[in-house]
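We modelled the chain as a single entity of 240 amino acids. Its sequence is:
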Amino acid sequence: MRNKLAFTKSVGALADTFDELAARDYGIPGMCLVHGYTGAGKTTAITWLVNRKRGVYVRATSQWTPTTMLASVMRELGAAPLVRRQAMLDHIVEQLTAAQRPLFVDEADYLLRDGDMLEALRDVHDLSHVPVVLIGMQGIERRLVHRPQLARRLSHWVEFLPSDLADARTLATTVCEVGVDDELLARLHQEAKGSVGLMTVGLARIEALGKANGWATVTASLWADRKLFIGGAPRVEGGR
């Protein structure tokens, strides 16, 4: 499998939205929400964007507090955490402002458990003026409505939706080192319900079979009744 990013519609929307966010007029809030169901390809796309924009990336956990959140950002900036929370906030703001590096916070659902964490993140955004991107699960957008200190600062958002058949072809062409015929690709897309994660697993299995047998293209008849992946696709609320 090729280690390349498939430029699906959701990835394209993410790239365009971030460029709009970075070029926003002064005074426009600079927070963005990226959300969607598990398997939609958010993690791979965010990793690509972080590397492309020299972003500072942290992943929230269930054990995060305002202090550990700031400490995680400090480490990503190459600095040791400090004892005083205010000192860490000052350092983070100074470094992000000087380098104009955006901040990405993954698993942002955990932030909604603690109002103090939201306030600390709001301070980072308001004082540094750099883009702050939150990445969360499907449904986080409804929960954020009840957190006005962040909701009113969200000027941009991207929802990662299930991929359509054209996206499936883009994915197969980008990452799979053998050809996949239209019938087999349609089966893969249907069984995965558009999940990029599951389609990638299926494509890896298709590629392995094709290479083992010396097939340049794997067809539905060659694949026969083999399983493409184990388990079912995730349920998507309001999906296509």
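As a brief sanity check on the tokenised model: DSSP finds eleven helices and seven strands in the chain. The radius of gyration is 20 Å.
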